Amino acid sequence: MSKNSPNAKPQTPHSSLQTPPPSPQTPNSSPLTPNTSPLTPNASLQIPDEKIYIAGHRGMVGSAIVRRLKKIGCTNIVTRTHKELDLLDQEAVFSFFRKEKIDRVVLAAARVGGIHANNSYPAEFIYQNLMIQANVIHGAWRSDVEHLLFLGSSCIYPKFAPQPMKEEYLLTDVLEPTNEPYAIAKIAGIKMCESYNRQYGTCYRSVMPTNLFGPGDNYHLENSHVIPAMIRKFYLAKMAMEGDVEGIVLDEKRYGPIPPDICESMGYRADTKTLESKVIPRVRLWGTGSPRREFLHVDDMAAASVFVMGLEQSHFENGNPSFLNVGTGEDITIRETAEIICRLVGFRGETVYNPDQPDGTPRKLMDTGRINSLGWRPSLSFEEGLKDACSWYMDRHFTNSGESEKE
Prior knowledge:
Layout: E1 52-55, H1 60-71, E2 77-78, H2 90-100, E3 104-107, H3 115-120, H4 122-142, E4 147-151, H5 180-200, E5 203-209, E6 211-213, H6 226-241, H7 245-255, H8 260-266, E7 268-269, E8 274-275, E9 282-286, E10 292-293, E11 295-297, H9 298-309, E12 323-326, E13 332-333, H10 334-345, E14 350-354, E15 363-364, H11 369-373, H12 382-395
Parallel strand pairs: 1-2, 1-3, 3-4, 4-5, 5-12, 6-11, 9-14, 10-15
Antiparallel strand pairs: 7-8, 10-13
Binding site for substrate: 233, 286, 293, 359
Protein name: GDP-L-fucose synthase
Region (Disordered): 1-43
């Protein structure tokens, strides 16, 4: 029977994942089975020269996963830029998998953004994410890729889901309207992995991270998430207060234009590249500052992803959800987050909130009980992670200052 037949039976190699793993010397040994937790100092994973494709390696999450895999000894990591491989082009994706003979896929590529971006581009968010996921997952299966990790998002859960949110709350109520198209695409990715596992016996699993931040984040003020947007706003206001026009101009070149309302609040005239002496710079933030959010540093997310890659398939079968939440299990208000960033950046001016702009979901806290029980926990505190993110952003103003940011 053809592999592409709808009635194709699961391939026999997959059945070995239902049983305890063989010894490291056995050829069928699980390539990412952990000896100890990947977060412990003496962590080591049994990794042969497996060919791992990271889709989205230039993004914040994908690049962190590449760093993590290299750190634990992976030497055959395959990456492609958007110019080299357009994941929206199905035939190009299928051709890539046919030629490269990939062993494992990490699907970190996605169209992402904050509230403003989701509100402004809902069609692009649902179309591009659905197409990327469908092309990569189906292309991987067509080329006999047995292992795949799909990265989703905490926005898959209902707007008013009980807190903290457990995996079983998926599809129990309506979604948050501001990012519903993106959430639906991510839910489709989870269900696609589930369906291929059920019909073809693959080992495709998913992780649902909470709000991520850290090195490599997107700082474009029209489509970034909350933490990178706040880091940039506070640093721009600090430079304005210090009269550092050169720093502001370099920031524009690297991270994109500064919206008119932000220019106004910091007294900056983008057309003449000057500061208005009578304006006292301040920071304006959307909403009331009252929503509570959970945040996770991207390096912890990368460690969790590698950890999940090494789990036995039985943890995602026999009535268990096919995905795992990844987070800290703790949340904080947007206002408190802004206060920490303000202090770390060193801005001494006023922060103003605009209640006319949407807050989004009132609270989003992940229940991380399942992944914690399997042996993973984050290594960085929230403030440690924020300090790292702020330092990474500010340090880039003193290195390669004229280079523009590339997505």
